[in-house]
Write the structure tokens for this entry.
Amino acid sequence: MSNTSIIIEERSRDIGNFLVGRLIPFRKKRMVGPFCFIDHMGPITLGPKKYIDVGQHPHIGLSTLTYLFKGEIVHSDSTGAHQRIYAGDVGWMTAGKGVVHTERSPEGLRGKKTDIHGFQIWVALPKELENMKPKFSFTSKSELPTWTKNGIEFTLIAGNGYGKKSPVPVHSSLYMVQLISDTKSSFSLDNEVKGEVGVCVVEGYIETGNEKIEQGNMLVSKVNEVCDIIIGEQSRILLFGGEPFNEERYIDWNFVSSDKEKIKEAKKNWVNKKFKMVSGDSSYIPLPSRKV
Ligand code: MN
């Protein structure tokens, strides 16, 4: 492997009952295309007393993409959206100038044991859309383009890739593709996707050059340097990336912006309870005191 490729090891942290692997940002690579943060949820068994219960918290300047391999989650936000997201569906919330949301295990599942496994991904907005009105969009599994090549099952989750377009209404040139394979096979990135490339090994392994990268790791490269990759047997990976922005993005707590002042203002507004909240919800996740 050339020394311009970076293997990013998944670092783990606890959020309440959950072990979350924070894949990016990383010291040596802050963003991949417009993707600025990836949270790996599980795989973990929930219930009967353990479940997801993330109360009201704000975002600005980004879109969140929720994609589950297993389990279900209920998303509610200050735009009035209230949506149950099943495995394979895409929840796409654009914060723009400001949104507040909650994520919870469905009431009906809280008494039972259920598995959850998935990702929540943050995608920075282009500078000219950072101030847009917040919006939520739901795309069901059946609407996503799927195809099979060399025994690999592809799903285009978001953006453009492999000559196809996902209906998820993204705001810049990007892609997120899931590949699942039962057997060891190879695939190409050459001319199939545009921009920077991230490969997240969710299950199994991949091989590139002489390197074997096991599940739980992410590989970041430039598109010209990784053309062909081998996906291992019984493996699931996510390809993601796209065209980077010209300006730097600042990330602080739940806020993303090209302008540090906007982040300061958002923090003040959250502390002073100036955000529009989720109707009928009284939860409130305070700004961490070290962030004030
Ligand atoms: Mn959130």
Remarks:
- The chain is about 5% helix and 50% strand.
- The radius of gyration is 19 Å.
- Confidence is low (pLDDT under 50) at residues 1-7, 12-22.
- The CA atoms of residues 163 and 192 lie 7 Å apart.
